[in-house]
Amino acid sequence: VHVVVSAEAGRNAMSTEADSDEALMLRYADGDMAAFQSLYQRHRGGLYRYFLRQSDAGTCEELFQDVWARVIQARKRYRQTARFSTWLYTLAHNRLVDHWRQTGRRPLFENDMDACEQMNGVGTSPSDPLRLADLRDCIEQLLALVGSLPDIQRQAFLLKHEAGLTLAQIAEAMQARTETTKSRLRYAMNHLRAAMPPECLENSDHD
Amino acid sequence: MTDSNERITSLYRHASREEPPAALDHAVLQQARQAVKRRRAAAPFGNPWMATGSLVTVCLVGVLLVSLLSERNITNGIPDVMENEAGVEHSADESDRQRETSPGSPALLKEYSLDSRQELRAPAPAAEVAGRPVEDAAESRSTPFDSATVTGKAAAPQRSQQLKKSDEPLLAVREFHYLQTGLFRDPASIPTLRARLAAAGLAVVVDEVSVDGTRWHRVRVGPFRTRQALEHARQQLEGLGIAYTLETSGE
After folding, report:
1. Are residues B243 and A146, on separate chains, in Cβ contact within 8 Å?
2. Of A36, A57, A196, which has the smallest distance from its Cβ to B8's Cβ?
3. Reported pTM
4. pLDDT digits (tens, 9 = 90+) for A136-154
5. Please, is B128 exposed, middle or buried when counting C-beta atoms within 10 Å of its C-beta (0-12, 13-18, 19+)?
């Protein structure tokens, strides 16, 4: 059974339904491969992009496989008390931090405002307004800006927009306080808003 | 500000469309399928609890049979060649009978893994092949593609003697077991992983595979021909935090 739905749609369908993420995971733990396929289809895109925005393509593929491998290996220990997507992205977050540690890179636990100010120059180099108004260029600009966000701001942003997690769930996945997480999200949006060319923000054709 | 945030959110949703390539999907789904299949089939080397349970059952049945049929002297025809198991003749004998009827039983694998080099030179008439790989990891690195799996159909004690004496060529290879630790389009990711694996003393095999017309670089550890070597490598990978997929390839 292949059900291709977005993470958001999957999130809305969860909780009480028999095909909720949690129910699918429990069925997979009992050996139901079709349940895993459904679960994988729901989350493959979001998880892939979560890593792709934060690493090169090769590392993304490695981390993506690693996280799914951990889901598979831990299937018998999974309990429905834990929301599947929160658990999945907690694994992803931890794996990414491990990767940074192994490669000698330290996640940027910045003073959020300072980092935001430091990065205000990113993406705001003089450009042709007409060209930037083009949707494709706006997209490239936005993706570049997301990639250049301070690590923990970017993670919070992606957990919201790729994983579809709520504020509390993002905080849980990142092992942070809710208020801290809220600040990170706010600073991330502030940065993107400040760095994006005005033409892109005014153009609503892409909606 | 709210409008700008909404536009950024909308633009991001419009922009963020990348999907994992088909080969990644294939690798993950294969691993998931393999995991549940392995649990059901207890493959490739069996569940140790099941092995223990079956051994205990066999011992109990054996004691019962021996006591019931002692007048027929059923045990006299079986030579005592279990040199290291002098105190457990009945268990050994019954284990051998079990192996004859269950060629892939873990008990057999345990015996065969005691001395892989001798076992790998088992003469074909006495030991028809149908079992599991046997060889230690060190040897598998030096001779990666010459493994053999043996399960005897002759009486086990005779087989044991022949295995220890024979220098005949290896039996045909049936299966290789690997632990796949990575699948990459970009080979730039390989050296780091390879270095970590090599530092742990694991034998690394890197090759290329084509999936849906795309060339991928596959990083695997192995091949393994003993349960011990495979389990040891698994533990090492888990200790290193490296995910893996068990892969079995035929001859």
Report:
1. no
2. A196
3. 0.54
4. 788 888 999 998 899 989 9
5. middle
